[in-house]
Amino acid sequence: MSMEVNLTERQKHILWATIRHYITTAEPVGSKALVEEYNLSLSPATIRNAFGWLEKVGLLYQPHTSAGRVPSDSGYRIYVDRLMKPTNTLARQVEQTLADRLQRKNGSLEALLRGAAQILATVSGYITLITLPQTQSVRLRHVQLVQVDVKRVMLIAVKDTYETSSVLMNLPETVGEVAEPEIMERELQILSNFLNSQLQGRSLLELADLDWGEIDREFQAYGDLLKMMMSDLLKQSNQPYSAQIMIYGVAEALRQPEFSELPQLQTLLHFLEDEQERLWPLIFAPSDRSVEHSSIPSSRVTVTIGSENPLEQMQTYALVSANYHQGTTAMGSIGVLGPTRMFYENTIPLVEATADYLSDALRQNNC
What we know:
Elements: H1 9-25, H2 31-38, H3 44-56, E1 60-61, E2 70-71, H4 73-83, H5 89-101, H6 109-124, E3 127-131, E4 140-149, E5 152-159, E6 164-170, H7 173-176, H8 181-199, H9 204-207, H10 223-237, E7 245-248, H11 250-253, H12 262-274, H13 276-283, E8 302-305, E9 317-326, E10 329-339, H14 344-364
Antiparallel strand pairs: 1-2, 3-7, 3-10, 4-5, 5-6, 8-9, 9-10
Family: Belongs to the HrcA family.
Function: Negative regulator of class I heat shock genes (grpE-dnaK-dnaJ and groELS operons). Prevents heat-shock induction of these operons.
Protein name: Heat-inducible transcription repressor HrcA
């Protein structure tokens, strides 16, 4: 949220011009540069006075006595919330590129997510982070029981993400006594149909709370087997967070001066790859968080700038992220990580457009 600082129109314009100039050049901004490049119709002395006031309230700072001004995290926050005007040119470009390059129907969801993240990294020029769908959000699309041999049966589960899991179990002795393969195949098909009628569309979280006592009497002999299978399926699906955040765009980010120092970049990459459990709550929240933007009031994008971040390793960066959905349920999140000196006008619409594309892809696959 924006700081409660009252700015005059002149102060707003000078703050806007200062931040825009710094985003473009990565160099501290002086009064002369603003007069020459932004046609402010103000004297350098008037601009310096405004600089002094903006510095006093914490929106700008002076890295060295003789240097120009640089935006603070609070200055960026006011810029994002009140002053910037998002541009949709790159957002339309990324929408077209996603549509041209990715297979959104009946393809692998993971391949779709990877492709979208790579495209977003290329267009934005920053590091892209994307989370795989959450176990509690994933739902069963279809289940099938298949006999492997006289003593074993396999449960194959297709999720609404089009990922497939399988569990192999030994048949209970009372079931294994059935000798004829045709009878066993018919019974397994009947049981598969029954399971689909009971389980199709349920989330994996719901499966953990099923009341197996309500299973129809004719299938009681299979009750314990099915319960063990579902338990194993849930364990298999509960992947640790560290395996669920994918990182792209490091090569693109190297073009930014903030990433030019190798030790700093190595520290960041180590954190992104090895500390993902701590990073996770910042990137993804099951219920959408949003930052109020006066110019885009309906935005579902979350913007975390520098010191707003509770994680020390991230406090020199900005993260712009948005959830993608299955219906109204947030399945995962895609985000862009870059310096606080980020082109927010481009990045916010880019992230929102990519999240919308992924949500539409899930909807078209009846997810």
